[in-house]
Amino acid sequence: MEFSVRVASLSVAALADRKLNAMALVDGDISGQQFRLILNGIAKYHQMKDEIPARVKARLKVAMKEETSSEQRRASDQLHKKS
Questions:
Q1: 46 to each of 11, 12, 50, 74, how far by Cα in Å?
Q2: What's the pLDDT score for residue 25?
Q3: How far apart are CA 13 and CA 18, in angstroms?
Q4: Which of 40, 45, 37 is nearest to 15 (CA)?
Q5: Least enclosed by CB within 10 Å: which of 48, 55, 69, 82?
Q6: Averaged in consecutive runs of 10 residues, what is the pLDDT profile of the chain (83 residues)?
Q7: How many angstroms separate the Cα of 33 from the Cα of each of 22, 53, 58, 75, 81?
Q8: Which of 1, 38, 10, 3 minimizes the C-alpha distance to 23?
Q9: CB 78 within 8 A of CB 49
Q10: Helix 32-82 / helix 2-27 crossing angle, nearest 10 deg
Q11: Which H, E and C letters describe 5-40, residue by residue?
């Protein structure tokens, strides 16, 4: 789980970095509006970074429930076959 969170976080950071570099390369200067966009992008990055662990945890919880349900069904089926 920790590895996937780091990978996702690095991907978000790489995308933010590319966006920033693309904006600065257009004219070599960053206007006030572009700077606000950058700050908003940074805020969005931090928000997404904070949401990643919660999403991963929720997905793992669902997967574990599905696996448990599947195991219970198999055990029930085996009991019925033995009867």
A1: 13, 9, 6, 43
A2: 60
A3: 9
A4: 45
A5: 82
A6: 54 71 67 80 84 87 85 76 67
A7: 15, 32, 37, 62, 70
A8: 38
A9: no
A10: 160
A11: HHHHHHHHHHHHHHHHHHHHHHHCCCCHHHHHHHHH
**Which residue is associated with the tokens 């069904």?**
73
Tell me which amino acid residue 83 is.
S
Residue with tokens 């349900």: 69
**Residue in the block written with tokens 């919880």:** 61
52 CB-near residues (< 8 Å, 6+ apart): 5, 8, 9, 12
Structure tokens at 14: 């790489």
